[in-house]
Predict the 3D structure of the following.
Amino acid sequence: MPRPPRDTGAGIFHVYTHCVWVAPAHFRDDVDRIEFLRQLARVTAQTNLTCISFCLMTTHYHLIVGVEDGVLPVAMHSLNLSYSIGFNQRYDLRGHVQFARYGARRISDEADLMGTYAYVARNPEEAGLSDSPETWRWSSHPGTVGLAERHSFVDDSAILACFSGAEDRRAALRAYVANL
């Protein structure tokens, strides 16, 4: 049975992928994570992909991205291929690094964006990798809420706009994630 076609329309998406089963981790060390972020920054500069949020775990990653029509598959192909080539060269491996095609779920509205953002930000704490979402350095969340330097390729305006009624949008977002 053929795979269903991808949603390639404009919008905001939660994108995720996992490592192939024979690899112990998608990101074995900080060098792998830095290389992935370098490739993500390159893709945002070369395509119409807007990175709203990211979180790099050990065996997988999460992105929240905004795209124009047709951009998501092109951008994700470029990101995953370039990371895989470097990963395979570094560890003298061959073949796929990701277990399967990346997953992408369209974010339907502001409430969905807020919930998905909180899920992604809380993922390291839920997995026991950090004490809180604010302390995981491989996430854009600390920079978005003003506790670390922001990544130059992250455009967090869409998530901060969800808190436009708050006196301090970053503090409101931080409280929302912490209290979910």
Remarks:
- The chain is about 40% helix and 15% strand.
- The radius of gyration is 16 Å.
